[in-house]
Design goal:
Number of strands: 9
Oligomer: single chain
Order of helices and strands: EHHEHHHHHEHEEEHEEHE
Mean pLDDT: 88
Number of helices: 10
Helix content: 40-55%
Length: 360
């Protein structure tokens, strides 16, 4: 089943509340006002938070690394920064041309400070705010560079940076993440699919989503025993337990339907585990109960999840049809909004579904 665009050329296609994606649903739940400005009114975004920049660059680097994991991921991440910024984000590209030569020294000094604090039985969560950093050679160099560039970044960049997530820190973190991620997963087999565009009509709703990675799980004899269907997330900290539930169920439902009608060839006689790959994960991550949080969180999807997803999508469509656009709840920790003049975006922590979590 397919959807045909019959909109006359030159006319804007009206918003279709039955065309759904994880980002649309999450945006609607986070802040109906921002959702309306973005998807209904189609206002141009004013600015975006730096988290979106980090996520876009990291996705690009991992997408290029997946098919051949013998490649050096930090090198691909550097190239991703260049390619993502060189045309559409020129001021970031020009700044990084000057900063890249300082990055290794900055990361080494940051680790040196962490190690020194750890030796004293303490933890430094912000090494670049310490006296040791400020008095170091790299600290002085970076302050000089920042004084030259940060006013221009504030004026010209679509992305916003703060003292807690300045551009040099984000670049350096991406290098650390790449080194750590490569070490953790370089022995995994190459994915069967990467950046797969999922467009499928399911129970009256058209899914529009991208699956980052479909990865085989092999036993010691090299036999295929399961599939991992994964999405990369660049959360800075562990998310609420069911934050990504709708996305997980959409992936499972849409992909299984594609396989059933022969549009995609994947085995169905082995388990499918749908989940999230937390690329910023560290061993310090803990869940809401204080237990260790896994670098990949995987689930098996059930019919109960399909039924709940269908119900929630129907509620979403009815709310839009009735023009119910609720602002973000006050008291929540806000995310960056694309419309800062009217920002009311909040983090969505709504639970849903009855997924059975699986740890491999």
């Amino acid at each position: 089943m397919s959807v045909v665009d019959e909109t006359p050329r030159g006319q804007r296609e009206p918003f279709n509340p039955r065309k759904v994606s994880p980002s649309r649903i999450n945006s609607f739940l986070a802040c109906g006002v921002a959702f309306k400005m973005n998807y209904i009114d189609r206002l141009p975004a004013q600015q975006s938070g730096s988290a979106a920049l980090f996520g876009s660059v990291a996705h690009l680097g991992l997408e290029r690394w997946g098919p051949d994991r013998s490649q050096h991921l930090p090198t691909l991440m550097r190239e991703a920064w260049r390619d993502y910024t060189i045309e559409d984000h020129k001021v970031i590209y020009l700044f990084l041309k000057e900063y890249v030569g300082l990055s290794a020294e900055a990361r080494d000094k940051e680790q040196e400070i962490r190690d020194a604090w750890a030796a004293r039985g303490k933890e430094s969560k912000a090494p670049r705010m310490t006296k040791e950093w400020k008095e170091s050679r790299i600290g002085r160099k970076l302050r000089e560079l920042q004084s030259d560039w940060f006013p221009r970044l504030d004026r010209e960049s679509f992305y916003r940076f703060t003292e807690f997530d300045p551009l040099p820190n984000l670049y350096d973190e991406s290098m650390v993440v790449a080194e750590r991620y490569e070490k953790r997963f370089h022995r995994n087999p190459a994915p069967l699919m990467t950046e797969f565009h999922l467009t499928e009509v399911w129970r009256g709703f058209q899914f529009d989503a991208y699956i980052d990675n479909v990865e085989p799980v092999l036993d010691d004899n090299g036999e295929l025993i399961a599939l991992l269907i994964l999405d990369y997330k660049s959360y800075k900290q562990p998310p609420p337990a069911m934050k990504d539930w709708r996305q997980v169920v959409m992936y499972d439902a849409g992909l299984r339907q594609l396989v059933e009608r022969g549009a995609v060839s994947l085995p169905t006689d082995i388990p499918w585990y749908i989940g999230i790959d937390f690329i910023r994960w560290t061993e310090s991550w803990k869940d809401e109960d204080g237990k260790p949080f896994p670098p990949r969180k995987l689930w098996r999807v059930s019919e109960a999840d399909y039924e709940r997803l269908e119900s929630e999508l129907s509620q979403y469509a009815r709310a839009i049809e009735n023009e119910i656009f609720l602002p973000a709840e006050k008291g929540r920790k806000p995310d960056y909004c694309d419309f800062p003049e009217n920002c009311c975006l909040r983090n969505c922590t709504a639970a849903g579904g009855g997924l059975t979590e699986v740890v491999l």
